[in-house]
Amino acid sequence: MVVGILKFDIYMEGNQSLKDKRRQVKSLIGKTKSRFPNISIAEVGSLDKWNKSTVGLSIVSNEASFVDSILDQAFFYIQQISGSFINNEEKEVIHF
Questions:
Q1: Do residues 9 and 86 touch, judged by C-beta distance below 8 A?
Q2: CA-CA-CA-CA torsion for 27, 40, 95, 66, nearest 10 degrees?
Q3: What is the phi/psi pair of residue 63, to 5°?
Q4: Are 51 and 86 spatial neighbours (Cβ–Cβ below 8 Å)?
Q5: Which of 3, 48, 89, 15 is nearest to 27 (CA)?
């Protein structure tokens, strides 16, 4: 079994409240889940900041190359649709 984990920060400009931020993050997560139904994705940090969100993705499979490929594709997709500055990307593939 192979588990892939990806965590990154998204910096969003123009939010006036936490409600604005949560709306953007919820939309991003929903679009990503519909495009990649075999991943789990959630906001995992910076919950009380208006302009920053920490997002985590995970996937389980039996092939490391598949896990790595899906994480890369999902990250590239999120970069395209978010229109925001993304950094602090951390990816780990764990073999059990």
A1: yes
A2: -70
A3: -130, 125
A4: no
A5: 15
For 2-95, CATH number?
A: 3.30.70.1120
| DSSP 8-state symbol, 6 | E
Token pair of 50, please? 């208006």
Q: Where are the domains of the chain?
A: 2-95
pLDDT in tens, the chain (96 residues): 999 999 999 998 878 888 888 999 999 999 999 999 999 999 998 888 888 999 999 999 999 999 999 999 999 999 988 877 888 899 999 998
pTM for this predicted structure: 0.86
Residue where the block lists tokens 């649709």: 81
